[in-house]
Amino acid sequence: MDPNKKYPMLVDIYGGPNAGNTWDSWSWNPIREIYSQEGLIHVKFDHRASGHFGKAGVNYMHRNLGFWEMQDYMHMAKWFIQNGQADPTKIAITGFSYGGYMSTYALTYGSSVFTHAMAGGSVVDWKLYDSHYTEKFMDTPAENPEGYKSGSVLTHIDKFNGVLQLVHGTMDDNVHMQNSIQLVSALQDKGKDFEFMLYPGGRHGWGGAKGNHFNNLKTKFIYKHLLGKEVPKGMLR
Prior knowledge:
This protein is 36% helix and 16% strand. The model has no long low-confidence stretch (mean pLDDT 94). Strands 2-1-3-4-5-6 form a 6-stranded parallel β-sheet, with helices on both faces. It has 8 helices and 6 strands. The longest helix is centred in the last third of the chain and has 20 residues, at 208-227. The chain is globular, with a radius of gyration of 17 Å. The protein has one domain (7-227): Alpha/Beta hydrolase fold, catalytic domain (Rossmann fold, 3-Layer(aba) Sandwich), CATH 3.40.50. By secondary structure, the chain is α/β, with parallel strands linked by helices.
């Protein structure tokens, strides 16, 4: 790295309670190697409630999904900016499912720090997700109205800023498509620009030709918005 240069940064997360994705191990990913050579800082980061701090850490999320996770993600991103490594105009975040929730939350609640997001299969309001999972952490909407309100991406829609790529499968039986549809409607009502891609027949993830299309979509986004160049020949599937 050139100490006199600021680099675009991509934060790759999941973000759910007791579900970390950062481990004390090493593996090689050829795509990430290419991005690194292109000058992209690729970060995996776990927040305080991701399981590394036991029940005491997870307890932070009780009745308050979204808040502490985003505080930690914002703090981490600011650290890279303040240390002169990351370009503050190109701070991206990406994730699927809970990671999609965090990514859309980042361009609303966290838009003072994050500038770009690629979000898939995203929860945007916890009242729209299944009660078995949600109420374990949030209690019921009647018992915790403020928690549901503050944790909703839609609550913070006036703060939306940045470049969003939103994707969803039309047959998603885990995070129902109504989540993305409600977000799309809210963004349209505010006159905001964004990218939206549907995958017909796709459930909570997809493979085959649509999986290749999805991977290409993300690659094009990274090269266009973060690296500012054309995708190298032969990289798309």
